[in-house]
Known about the structure:
- The protein contains 19 helices and eight strands.
- It has helices at 5-8, 21-24, 29-36, 52-62, 77-85, 108-119, 133-136, 139-143, 155-173, 183-190, 195-207, 220-226, 239-253, 257-269, 273-288, 295-309, 315-327, 333-346, 406-419, and strands at residues 41-45, 66-71, 96-101, 123-129, 145-149, 177-179, 210-212, 215-218.
- Strands 2-3-4-1-5 form a five-stranded parallel sheet, sandwiched between helices. Strands 6-8-7 form a three-stranded mixed sheet.
Amino acid sequence: MSSPLADRLRPKTIDDMAGQEHLIGQGKPLRNIIESGELPNMVFYGPPGVGKTTLANIIAKQTDRYLVKLNGTTAGTADIKDVVAQLDTLAAANGILLYLDEIKYFNKKQQQTLLEYIENGRITLIASTTENPYFYVYSAILSRSTVFEFKSVTPDDVKKVIVRGFEFMAKERNEEYEIEDGVIEHIATACAGDVRKSLNSVELCALSSVKQEEKRFVSLENAVSLTQKSSMRYDKDSDEHYDIISAYQKSMRGSDPDAAVHYLARLLEAGDLPSACRRLMVCACEDVGLAYPQIIPIVKAAIDAAQMLGLPEARIPLADAVVLVCTSPKSNSAYNAINSAMSDVQKGKTGPIPRQLQNKHYDGADNEAPGQNYQYAHSFEGHWVKQQYLPDAIKDRKYYEYGDNKMEQAAKEYWSKIKK
């Protein structure tokens, strides 16, 4: 069984690689390090299919290092010991370059096993991860490594790879392909900067092409059907998940309905209805809040409708609610108030509840001021009477400040008249 096209067409030199110009372009930091021949321990961080493994292979070849590959999903401490056992062999005379893919799956103890050897330079580590290394990689490893962030490859760079892929398939299979207009552009866009995925799509398109006379025809319709979900790089435990829901909520808070419905669409396309609903409800309460308090039951009703309908129809009430949140006035006054109150409580700034508010109507013999002395607000003009409600220790504390919106300013004016 032949290897995938992405492996058969894997670049052999830095100049053959697509993208990552910010790292390996002429005069750029990582390229200079590689060309110096003196390799530090490195962590390659970025989405899949952008060249992390490919560059590790190129580095090993260019620096004449013995390359050992491990994958964090399957390797263990015993595999690390096997690597160490090769240190004094003839094959590893120039030292070992250990490429550890998906280091995030190595636990702390397994990562610690590497420390002694990467510190004395006998093993040079290149670790790769698709998730933020500052969350998943042991701090002692990070302190001894340089982190390089790989980015998604641009569609223009991916197009060049796709063309090369079709040319390679034509030569390899001794066939000629007629490619319909739009096929290359669609694959380049739909695969979202993942070179491996784009080449896999090229191979599928070539293998499923229809023979017409002396050529094989690659249709746009076929390309679309083979890559219809490819652009969704999404995992509910990944950075991409948290980036999307963060952008979704911040777009609503920032009153940008175009951006907000875009991120809603990405969540729904990935089937993540719970995150779309939860963040929408949070935003209605936190960011619109008292500027338009009626929005809370409205958004709740839209979410209930979406959950009753299910996808794909759920998109309709959710879009209504998202646009409403975006175009509503904003206030986080209540959000700030509860955060301040929670902070005081967590710091122990509380104190006994004032006697007039306690839920009891009797006094101990030692009470110097018998009687609860609670004043019922409705018995007074304007349904208000001046009375201490906070504990003595924080009786002058202010948590809530009126927002500068019409709703809260009206309430402020009302209570100013009552309390004067």
